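User: Fold both of these, please.

Assistant: Here is the first one.
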Amino acid sequence: MNNASEMSGRSGKGERNKLSERNLFNAIQAILYDVAGVRNITMDTDLVRDLSLNSFDVASLLNAVEEHFGMEIPIRDVWSLNQVKDIVEYLSARLKSAKS
């Protein structure tokens, strides 16, 4: 089982948001490794500047994210996903709104 598929861990209410963000980061890290062979990232890692991903790489990454989380990312939202933290925050907000 790869890291991207090990996202279902739950915790106590007090740490739910913190762990959820950490789990999202871990999933993005695993997906980036699967798609682009990149291991060392932080929340501030820029997909283009720091990782030298081209448009095809970014499209492949976001497609893998969509498949993993079972959601579609509208093209209007794609333009704002420049750093790992942007993807984590976007997913967190989308998943929270899906629970409501």
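And the second sequence with its predicted structure:
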Amino acid sequence: MSALPDHSEVPWHRVINHKGEISKRKDGLGDIIQRKLLEVEGVGFDQRGRVSFRKVLWRGPSSPTKLEKNHKKQSSGRLQKIKSIYSEIT
């Protein structure tokens, strides 16, 4: 995912680890940006910083989640959101 160009439409921010957590990044910002993007899409986190796979696990194109349907409406503004979030935290 780190090799994707900035303008990519691949929803990299939706990739979380097997524990339901966002993996820490070396730069210290990527994980913050990822969490903020997920929160904008309506993904909730528990007090340990984990998401519920029952609510957000993607089961393939034949059964889109509520969040996935919402994503299609928002995908064109993702790069702008990333820039905005980045400017907030730096």
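The chain is about 40% helix and 0% strand.
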